Amino acid sequence: MIKVKVNCYLQPSFLKNSLTEDLIFMSNLDSLDKIVSLAKARGFIFQSSEIYGGLSAVYDYGPLGVELKRNIRNAWWKEMTQRHDNIVGVDAAIFMHPKVWEASGHVAGFNDPMIDDKQSKKRYRADMIIEQYILKLEKDGKTEKAAELQELLDTSGTRKSLTEDLYDIIIENEIKAPDSGAFDWTEVRQFNLMFKTAFGATASEDDAVYLRPETAQGIFVNYKNVLDTARVQVPFGIAQTGKAFRNEVVARQFVFRMREFEQMEMQYFVEPGTDADAYKEWKEKRIAWHKSIGIREENLRFADHPQDKLAHYALAAVDVQYQFPIGWQEVEGIHNRSDFDLTQHQEFSGKKLDYYDQKNNKRYTPYVIETSIGLDRCTLMVLCDAYREEEVDGDTRTVLKMHPNLAPVQVGIFPLIKKPELQELAHKIDADLREDFSVLYDESGSIGKRYRRLDEAGTPFCITIDFDGLEDNSVTIRYRDDMSQQRIPVDKIADYIRAGIKDWKPE
User: Fold this and answer.
1) E strand or H helix at 218, and its extent?
2) Is 97 helix (H, G, I), strand (E, B) or coil?
3) For 378-423, how does the pLDDT look when each residue is reduced to its tens digit (9 = 90+)?
4) What angle do CA 481, 487, 489 make, to 5 degrees?
5) 369-388 exposure pattern, b = at least 16 Cβ within 10 A, e = fewer
6) What residue ranges define each of the domains in the chain, with the CATH number in brackets?
7) Among 46, 144, 377, 408, which is least packed, fewest CB within 10 Å?
């Protein structure tokens, strides 16, 4: 147990003396299980179709979760569009012409190498089975053997085909199935991750369409429409948020990997030759945004993709990773996609998608710098980073210390007891604050229990209306992060909250 005394760091300029209680940090988050439990108990995230036993790797967002998710989406949209005069938005349909996915390479190449255990009938990603075996060898001190297998894995596809090389590694090293312990495998084969369905009332196989596996292609096919209507010039960007669907065979770890998820993507079109500078610039901008929404710097890092591991469209790629309880994992990808996408769609559609630079009297196909972040992963990151357990007077307090701008409920309003005169003033304060803040009125249970409920919801400010306030028109405002309390005039409440939001910093 790490014991640290926490002092109040929030002091709006008009408040000088804040009563601060001592807190003891017990632990930070060490397991996703705690987040899963809290998410269910407080109405952040539920298993989809739970009353029927649930649907694997599909989740619903509850009353608090939908607000948190919306606040993160709004923060991203504001950063990517409102703060840039050369980035506009689109909202492309989920269904797209099937040739879109042929041009993008998804029909032929959006595959995972899968292998089945004949005993348990379970399916696994072949490369992940090998990676897990390598980790086991390292843990057992067999580092030379682990390095040898890692080299074979890294060069898969260079000896025979990718599937054959992976199969050979598994068979030659007698790697057993992780669940059954059997050594009875099928051959490795490629499994396409796109959901396929029929289109139209009299649809046949020839009318097949796909649920989009990413939102980026909706931007690329609208590039010319935006260019013709939005009066933009290179460099410019197109941003979009929306649902995407992937038939993940290995879907796990709560909302980190799902079959139905939401992306927030921006494609930035630049002149060839300027792409390296733009790529560097967007790396800096995106890591700065993660910090601006309250994610602690020590939990963020960049992870570059080696040149021999880049996607077929990429000249360069880097991940923004977050240190989840499951380890360092990707939250956002930043890619230099070159002119691959526009060139492909120009070829498959027969429509010109180059750009005419009037100023320099030349034509070229723009390169694209992509920023792509999973909204669900970002939501999980915010919950993990905000989670705290603290010892308060011998009891454990669970609290989400997230950025006040992201909090599903920013202000809790509590009449001390259920008396009409207290309720009247509480309702008046509630009505005054609702125009600018998300507010929850609560008069059920003791004040302590009400505080704890909203601590777990991440609510940064709680206002208690008592009988003294009826005399001097003041209230007690309590700050989530250190539980400090302050008496302030009713007409200063909004100013206090605004100052607290502006000055907030993660611990």
Assistant:
1) helix 216-220
2) coil
3) 999 999 999 999 988 888 999 999 999 999 999 999 999 999 999 9
4) 120
5) bbbbbbbbbbbbbbbbbbbb
6) 46-93+210-383 (3.30.930.10), 111-192 (3.30.40.230), 409-507 (3.40.50.800)
7) 144
